[in-house]
Design brief:
The protein is mainly β and about 350 residues long. It has one domain: Neuraminidase (6 Propeller), CATH 2.120.10. About 0% of the residues lie in helices and about 50% in strands. The chain is built from no helices and 27 strands. Strands 1, 11, 12, 13, 14, 15, 16, 17 and 18 form a 9-stranded mixed β-sheet that branches.
Length: about 350
């Protein structure tokens, strides 16, 4: 690692399940008022964003077999839901929404490739394909728009899946982050020391941006054989001025099983995301405030959820995410910080 990076690894609170005993800390941020968000008739609902007006973005599994992916915009509760499906797409996801009601997402075409899009509040859709994406000689490819701020600046990532740069007989997904200005100019962003060859997925992905221009994302980098597996999946924040800070949840260790992914950031610098152990198949959401992690646990009258994931946080301190029960239910939720 180089001197240009700083590192956030802090005490965690209220950890999900029995992974680690909770750590008591006076500076903990309280997350309250968890509210279920479920699309009627859907087999699964995911909340990806909430703007300050309370408009919710997300996607759900619908169709006759419950496997069709469709985006949605929700205003005023489940009775006011607009389904978002890009024409000719086999699946559509809405990944974020800003305060003007403009949303971003991605869709899969009939060849299995992915494309980003911007959708205005009135429903006009503009397709986004990163111009740096070279599709020749790859198996599949895509552009994914994941975040948008009030100025219309979009973040996301593009990827190709194809022969590895080291071992051409192995297929690897190579990711690169991007920022798209409101005027339509794309700028590629690769985190310092991001790996460009390994298994199964390498590179940089951007997930969220605030109105200041600070961004959050995740990347893969090489850690060396003395630490076990060769790669690590970590989160990061990069400020509008270019300062890079690695974000690692304290339950993570230096190997390829554990991962940390920041998904959203608001103007106050509050960050939300997920972490987990891919080898054990566990994951949980968290809030990072003032250097302290608070883990998220959706609760209702039936008790705690099996898992609670976090996708966004707005300037009013409202978190949007997904929770799941032990009986196969997957729902969206909103929660309030404070």
């Amino acid at each position: 690692m180089t001197a240009r990076k700083s590192l956030i690894v802090c005490a965690a609170l209220a950890l999900v399940g029995a992974m680690v005993a909770p750590v008591e800390r006076a500076s903990a941020v309280e997350v309250t008022a968890y509210t279920d968000v479920s699309i009627t008739g859907a087999s699964a609902t995911h909340v990806t964003g909430v703007n300050t007006a309370g408009t919710i973005s997300g996607y759900y599994l619908g169709g006759k077999k419950g496997t069709t992916v469709e985006g949605f915009i929700m205003t005023g509760g489940v009775t006011s839901v607009t389904t978002v499906v890009v024409a000719t797409a086999t699946g559509t996801r809405v990944n974020a929404i800003n305060d003007s009601g403009t949303s971003v997402g991605s869709y899969v075409d009939r060849k299995g490739n992915e494309h980003g899009f911007i959708r205005t509040a009135s429903g006009a859709v503009t397709v986004l394909d990163d111009p740096s994406l070279v599709t020749k000689g790859v198996h599949s490819y895509g552009t994914v728009a994941t975040g948008i701020n009030s100025s219309g600046v979009v973040v996301g990532y593009y990827y190709t899946t194809g022969p590895d740069k080291v071992d051409s007989h192995t297929y690897v997904t190579h990711n690169h982050g991007f920022t798209r200005s409101s005027a339509g100019t794309f700028t590629t962003y690769d985190a310092p020391d991001a790996a460009d060859s390994a298994l199964p997925s390498v590179g940089t992905r951007l997930f969220g941006i605030n109105d200041v221009g600070d961004k959050v994302g995740a990347y893969t980098y090489n850690v060396g054989p003395e630490l076990g597996p060769d790669t690590r999946n970590s989160g990061f924040e990069v400020t509008a001025g270019g300062t890079f800070t690695e974000i690692v949840h304290p339950t993570s260790t230096l190997n390829a099983c554990f991962w940390t992914e920041p998904h959203g950031i608001n103007d106050a610098g509050l960050i939300v995301g997920d972490a987990g152990n891919g080898c054990a198949g566990t994951s949980f959401g968290w809030l990072l405030s003032g250097g302290t992690f608070t883990n998220l646990v959706y609760t209702d009258e039936s008790g705690e959820a099996q898992y609670t994931l976090a996708n966004s946080v707005n300037n009013a301190g409202v978190i949007g995410g997904t929770w799941g029960s032990g009986i196969g239910e997957t729902h969206g939720y909103t929660a309030t910080i404070g």
